[in-house]
UniProtKB/TrEMBL annotation:
It comes from the Eukaryota. Keywords: Methyltransferase, S-adenosyl-L-methionine, Transferase. SUPFAM superfamilies: S-adenosyl-L-methionine-dependent methyltransferases (SSF53335), Winged helix' DNA-binding domain (SSF46785). This is O-methyltransferase domain-containing protein. Residues 108-178 form the O-methyltransferase dimerisation domain. Residues 283-425 form the O-methyltransferase C-terminal domain. GO terms for biological process: methylation. InterPro entries: COMT-like, COMT_C, COMT_dimerisation, SAM-dependent_MTases_sf, WH-like_DNA-bd_sf, WH_DNA-bd_sf.
């Protein structure tokens, strides 16, 4: 382990590494913080007996858990990933962790966005992904050779491209996926939306006395982006980012367990059974359903499901819905803050909608649905994250902070959900959760004496 002084000197500019006698005095007087930390102990690594024991424990857990992959268990895979991440953190020294966050990852995000902007991954994939040199890639993308070299070295260091011998590069699995529009647009949309909002968030919170942001039209988003517009109105005014955002929303669920999977929410028993068939009967209204990917999935996974399916969203989104949607799906422009035109459907579904809005706005949205719901028949299905009080997944807590930065809203705990729904006269019948870090399915109804409210909120874990 390096000693504390060598660590400090390594991070100093060269003028300070060989200081004159006066600068040494000045330097020491400004180094109070560094001296007050016992860097030797703070930097302890795997050689430290307690750390080494932790590493051994984690390695054992990883070994034991690896059979989960063979069995194809999603919960097991998630646990393996959590243990492997914990192993990396345990192996890293504090400064390695900090440099990873502040140097490697912060720049990686920008470099990834630049790579997507110049279509690097499409170019890497040309000619059956045959390995390519830096000058070739520079030529294909219009970048200078020097800049391309710096970009490929960082992407190689971060594992996004494969560095072969003789200065040749090939795409990794992620690089190949980054040629798929919904994945590449995840980088585009998130970078453009998050950048100004997140980088100004510390300043915003300091200036507002560290209050929880709750105003969606005067919050961190408006402060960071220097705009009076709500996040969604800003998107409508910025069509390129809006289109990328819609693609990002389609990508968001890729490869994740879905509420309509057989081992998640019992659709047959709780949604389809009891459906009242009629000429125009609606099985499910997907309110603010984006481009309709959830309903298309439902058509694929539940081909025998009866009734009509209604896809609603803002007019601007509905205009861009593809024409060859499944014929059972009817697209319809609808503003969630106005009365719901479809009355008495079997279910009203919302995926990642209520987390966009603070409680007061959610109550406005929910009241319109309660008015449309038929007591004893209609169900409200909410597909959202439910944050556990302890052991929350970092994707969940990270999204909670993003919701704050973008919309002054939040992810919710089980109690938050129950309280919110109760406040508009709805009762939570059950909460189904598949695996950590993924969205749950919350079922709520207008309570009647005939309802079976006996379903518990025990997670259904395969
Ligand atoms: C986070 S996205 C979720 C989309 C979709 N449910 C999904 O899970 O992919 C939020 C959606 O709310 C829609 N939206 C925002 N404000 C709306 C409004 N006032 N009325 C209807 N839809 C709205 C947006 O256009 C966007 O499609």
């Amino acid at each position: 382990m390096e000693d504390s002084h060598s660590i400090i000197v390594e991070t100093m500019p060269s003028s300070v590494v060989n200081p004159s006698p006066t600068t040494v005095v000045e330097m020491l007087s400004t180094m109070d913080n560094a001296h007050s930390i016992d860097i030797d102990s703070a930097s302890s690594g795997p050689q430290d007996p307690s750390v080494s024991k932790e590493v051994q424990n984690l390695l054992q857990k990883i070994n034991a858990g690896s059979s989960a992959l063979v069995k194809g268990s999603e919960v097991g895979r998630k646990q393996l990933l959590a243990d492997a991440t914990a192993l990396c953190l345990t192996l890293e020294t504090p400064i390695e962790t900090l440099l990873r966050i502040t140097w490697s990852q912060s720049t990686f995000y920008a470099v990834l966005k630049i790579a997507v902007d110049v279509n690097l991954f499409e170019k890497l994939g040309e000619n059956d992904s045959s390995p390519k040199t830096i000058p070739q890639l520079a030529n294909l993308t219009g970048m200078s050779v020097e800049l391309m070299g710096r970009m490929m070295r960082h992407l190689g260091a971060m594992g996004v491209v494969l560095e072969l011998e003789d200065g040749l590069y090939a795409p990794s699995r992620l690089a190949k996926n980054l040629t798929i529009p919904v994945y590449r647009d995840t980088v585009v949309a998130c970078f453009d939306m998050q950048g100004p909002a997140l980088s100004n968030l510390p300043k915003y919170l300091a200036q507002t006395g560290y209050r929880n942001p709750e105003n969606p039209v005067d919050g961190p988003w408006q402060y960071g982006h220097k705009t009076p517009l709500h996040f969604f109105d800003w998107l409508v005014a910025n069509p390129k980012t809006f289109s990328a955002f819609n693609n990002h929303m389609s990508a968001y669920s890729q490869g994740r367990p879905s509420w309509m999977d057989p081992d998640f929410y019992p659709t047959e028993e709780r949604l389809i059974k009891g459906f009242e068939a009629g000429i125009d009967s609606v099985l499910l209204v997907d309110q603010a359903g984006g481009l309709g990917h959830d309903l298309e999935e439902l058509c694929r996974k539940l081909p025998h499901a009866p009734g009509r399916l209604i896809l609603q969203d803002q007019a601007k989104v509905i205009e861009t819905v593809k024409v060859d949607l499944d014929p059972r799906i009817t697209p319809m422009a609808h503003d969630i803050f106005t009365p719901q035109p479809i009355q008495g459907a079997r279910a009203y579904f919302m995926h990642s909608i209520l987390h966009d809005w603070p409680d007061e706005k959610c109550r406005d949205i929910l009241r319109h649905l309660v008015t449309a719901m038929k007591p004893g028949y209609s169900k409200l299905l909410i597909n959202e994250l439910v944050i556990p009080n302890r052991g929350a997944h970092p994707a969940t807590t990270g999204l909670d902070w993003l919701m704050m930065a973008l919309m002054s809203s939040s992810e919710r705990t089980e109690k938050d959900w129950t309280d919110l729904l109760q406040s508009v006269g709805l009762t939570v019948v059950g909460i189904w959760t598949h695996s950590p870090g993924t969205e749950s399915l919350i079922e709520a109804v207008i309570p009647t004496i005939l309802d079976d409210l006996s379903v518990t909120s025990e997670p259904v874990v395969p």
